């Protein structure tokens, strides 16, 4: 399973602070040895200002109360630098903390700069100090402080490059605070700048798009409208191009989003095309599942892949998020993926066959016979399919209009709840097994 873990491929495209949540997830899943994760954390922390955190990890990793001298030295350095940055930024910060003065600011950047300069002797140096201070706070792990100051800095900044960098910092801070709505706004703001005609260079544009898509995974798999958002973004030509140029592994996420998003089923064809084009550059059980089903019509292969898909989702930091219920833990995305994937298999099978053996279908859907029969009965009833179930012979017979089954299912899946309690129960059992 470790071969499906994308953390190593994703991390280089993230701010190092954003890698922590991924490591936390892997640690919780006990995917790698605890020591390995702790060492990776210390390595990451060594380039931030979170020295106290690094010391704590060192202590628990080596079961000691002592910390190495270089950590102690680093702490002294960090505290000293924080103090001096605080002093440099103080004039502007005390201005910004005074509500009655802030009210005098206008939506006119030039006016504000002039006013700050004339009345408070706050010039480019003090504004630069605010940026440095905000950045330093971010490195210390004070994301809320950093977000506020970076926001204020951008309102006064006249350097495009710096302003862009502040916006990336603000985005990272909002993600780390899990403010998904604000993070989404910042993401869109960044996208607009990156896509603008006068952006630095095409190469840098490509790189920025790739970063943006990686950072967006946090938002899209947490924000309530994320499953549409990721499809809207990743399928834009320039972004899909970037994926196909230098970020093939992102196909996992866009594929998953398409599978679970019933309303965007129309993207399936485009997705399959890309998966096929990139089959030599990237594959995992999720892309292979779709390939088996829609390119090769290989139902046995699809069924085998579906089992692997479940493991991939459970072990992916973006997809495998657990939700604690009163009685058991579920992984909502896994449940939805399996539900929809089975629907895909069923749809495709129906399109090819007139008469379907329930036992055979149960096997292909990886369900028990009874479960599959109940599932199909519900499906036929709720989707008003033109199909009859013959319990005696254990078959489903598609009516003459069965070629429309695909559309019919699409129509009615909104109110269709295929997720029976039975399935939920099984799912929690298998989750318990995986956790063992
Ligand atoms: C805000 O600035 C005004 C004008 O300089 C000053 O009179 C006032 O005391 C300040 N308020 C606070 C809370 O510092
Ligand atoms: C975070 O930064 C803000 C703004 O500088 C500051 O007021 C706050 O005390 C900082 N929090 C911590 C925990 O250092
Ligand atoms: C679901 O659970 C039932 C009862 O425990 C069992 O008979 C069936 O085989 C399970 N199905 C799957 C797909 O695990």
TrEMBL record:
Source species taxonomy: Eukaryota, Viridiplantae, Streptophyta, Embryophyta, Tracheophyta
Organism, scientific name: Cinnamomum micranthum f. kanehirae
One GO term describing the cellular component: eukaryotic 48S preinitiation complex
Protein's cellular compartments: Cytoplasm
HAMAP family associated with the record: eIF3e
GO MF entries: translation initiation factor activity
Alphabetized UniProt keyword annotations: Cytoplasm, Initiation factor, Protein biosynthesis
PROSITE patterns membership: PCI
Family as reported in the entry's similarity comment: Belongs to the eIF-3 subunit E family.
Protein biosynthesis recorded as keyword: yes
The protein, known as: Eukaryotic translation initiation factor 3 subunit E
Classification via SMART domains: eIF3_N (SM01186), PINT (SM00088)
